[in-house]
Structure formats: structure tokens, C-alpha cells
Amino acid sequence: MERFKGKKVLIVGIxxxxxxxxxxxxxxxxxxxxxxxKPIFDLNKAVKKLKKIKPPPHMTFGEHLESDFMEADVIxxxxxxxxDLPQLQxxxxxxxxxxxxxxxxxxxxxxxxxxxxxxxxxxxxAHMIGFALKQDGKNIFVGGTSEMPFIExxxxxxxxxxxxxxxxxxxxxxxxxxxxxPKVVVFTNxxxxxxxxxxxxxxxYIETKLNIIKRLGPDDTLVVNYDTLSxxxxxxxxxxxxxxxxxxxxxxMGIMGEVSGTHFHDRRIHSNINYHSEFVVSKMRIVxxxxxxxxxxxxxxxxxxxxxDAAIQKxxxxxxxxxxxxxxxxxxxxxxxxxxxxxxDMDELVKSLDAFKSPVILxxxxxxxxxxxxxxxVKPLIQKTRVMVLVGECKERLNRAxxxxxxxxxxxSFEESVLFAYQKSRTGDVILLSPGNPSTDFFRDYEERGNYxxxxxxxx
Length: 460
Prior knowledge:
The protein is an alpha/beta fold. Helix content is 35%, strand content 20%. It contains 19 helices and 20 strands. It has helices at residues 16-27, 44-52, 66-71, 86-93, 101-108, 122-135, 151-154, 171-174, 202-214, 226-229, 233-236, 250-253, 289-304, 309-318, 346-353, 378-384, 395-401, 414-423, 446-459; strands spanning 8-12, 31-36, 58-61, 74-77, 97-100, 113-117, 140-143, 164-168, 184-187, 221-225, 241-245, 261-265, 268-271, 277-280, 327-332, 335-339, 360-364, 385-390, 408-410, 430-433. The chain has a nine-stranded mixed beta sheet with strand order 7-8-6-9-10-11-12-13-14, sandwiched between helices. Strands 15-16-20-17-18-19 form a six-stranded mixed beta sheet, sandwiched between helices. A five-stranded parallel beta sheet has the order 3-2-1-4-5, sandwiched between helices.
């Protein structure tokens, strides 16, 4: 870390990751410049925040000046920036030190890394693993996202006390990522949608994702979702210890003696890694098929890491979910509250409703998007909700679409929506905030809305 002290640093891309990088390099007394292709009037909030930093960094907006890149000793770009940006390529050709935020953090990390890969489910699974390790008395860092960039680990004052670093890794982060050697790699799935302009084709995207497996050796561990990836010979021939997890039963599939891993059988989770373990799932807090699948993956990784069965059982019973994503909050008088503020479109809302076995009391609504047609969603909303409490700009239009719903109520404020939903509840009910619409009618973003919902619930 000392080799970066006092250097001239250029940070490419301003977002949460960019500010994390500024904070890190400020501790090393570096001379910092920031550049972003967006014009300054699109970055008002970021610019105000930058000006409050002491000392304020030099700023270039609306263009990438080649002189900024040529004058820097170290250049670090955020995940939103293409690694093939011409100015970055020119800097590499001149022998400059060029890193992505993730690759820089990897260079600085000397702790065992657990990497969670795949197209969906990475965040939840990574936090589940971290939660179980904490229950087992380990000190953990969980990151690799825009909300918690990997570089935050390098800035931790107690980083030497960390036992494991759990990071979720996207395909974009794997580009130009050298010497990345995780001890455990978890693969949830591989989708066919790929981020542009980072990749030109699905094939390039998938190949980049799979490259991480080539770096594993006999002492490393690969955890794979059997239900989505068992037909891929690349995983079956991986040069390491491989464990599988499935929502089905190894027994009924007839493969019990062929694979090692974790499966669901006879209403319990079974794992035959190192020794046989059984886990009770009747008190699991999280809901939804995808979350249950992620739980199986986390258990598999934890068993491979020799986490105690007691710690794993605590994780099953106590893990609340990821903030604002079907997050369990609290039970009050037999009523369970869930915060799903991140569900900002109707498809996500319907998917969240499918996670519950019985109809729920739903708080929905938000900014009115005139071109959004609510009619295709009316049938599942009527089937999956007992009571609907509508709030926000779109409440009137959504109410008209739901003409046949037996219990639909319009309220004037977000505060009133929570109180009214609780008044309509009875023992055994679920009250779910899953808006299905953007938050920007009343709130800055979905996080502010979700946090305010939590505050109101705990005040009831």
C-alpha cells in the first residue's frame, strides 16, 4: 500500500465507487484528479460532494483529456467505465499503472477470498456466507458491489484482523483482472444477457465468466448450482474440489453416490461435505424460491469452509435478507413485515408476491410513469393480495386498473399507508412494501423509501 503514497492518481468515473477510491487515496496523501464523461450539469450532487472533500480533487467533466491520463502515475477506473476506453489503452501503452477499482483492491488484499459469481443471486448469497461466518466467530468483509466496493476493504483500519473476504464478482470486473486467486468460487448461474459495451457477444461474456475457474487448483474449491449448470462440462472438469447444490434431492435423482454437496430431501437440507449434516428449514426467515436456492449455495460454501453446523443453522433461522430486497424486518403481534423497496417495476412486484404462500397486505405505488400499462398485472395482483394500500402519484390510475379487487384503499401519505396496512392486518398476515413503481415522487431513491418504511414499522 505504501507504494501508492504521494502518487499522482487519476480516478475515472464518479459514483459511489469513485468516492470510495478518493477516500482511500486521500489516506495515502495522493494528488487526486477525477474525470467523468458526463457533463457537469448531470453531476450536480457529485460535484457538491467533491467540493466538500479536503483537499478537493481536481476535476474534469464532459470529456476525458489525454493530458490527465498522461500526467498521472496511477489510473483507476470504476466498473461502469469500459476497460477498452482509448485513453486507458494509451496510458497502458505508456507504461502507466492502470487498474480497475476491483483489480486494485485485489492487489491490496492479502486475505483468503471467497468469490461469488453468476448472473443472478450474487449479492444475497455473498451476504449469507458472510452472515454464517460471523456466527462462527470470524471477522468478515463482504463487498464487491457499487454499494460496498471491494476497495473499502483496503481502507479498513482493522483489515489485518479480517479472516475472510467475501466478494461478488461480475463478468465486467473479471476483465483485465490478473492474479485473482480466490480460495472458494461459487457459481449461481449464467444468463445470456451481457453488459454493453464491455462485451461484444454472449460468447465473449460467458468465456470471461468461466476464466476464473481456470485459475483454481487442487487446493481450491468450486461450488456450483446443479439445477442450472450441471450440463456444462466446464464445471464437471474443473481442476479443483467441486461441490454441487440443488433444490431437488440427490436421492430421488439417483446421483447420491456420484456427487458431493447439498440438497433438499425429506423436508430438510442435507449436506455430505466433510461429514453428513442436516438442517431444519421450518424457521427460515427469508422467502422466495430464489432465496431458498441461494441458501443452499451458501450452506455448501460454508460446509466446504468447515463452518460449524450450529452457525449454519443460525444463518438459516436469522438471516433477514438483503436490505430493500424482500428483507424481513420484524414480527409485531403475529404480523410479519417485509421491505421490498427495490422492486421498482411491476414485473419485480409480481415476482415478489410469488414468494409468499398466502395472499399478503401490499403497499404499492410511487411515481406515475404514464406509458406503463397496469392491465397485464391486474390478475396476479388480485390473486396474490388480500388488501392493497395504494400511495403516491400513480395511486389513482393503479386503483382504476384494479377495479375488481375486493379490498383496495387509497391513502394520502406514505406514513398513512403503513399505519392503515397495520390496522387492516390480523395474526398470521404479511405486510409487504413492494411498490412496483419508482420512488422519486416522494423520495430520493428506493433506499431512502425503504429506510423510511423501516423507521415507520419500528415506531408502530
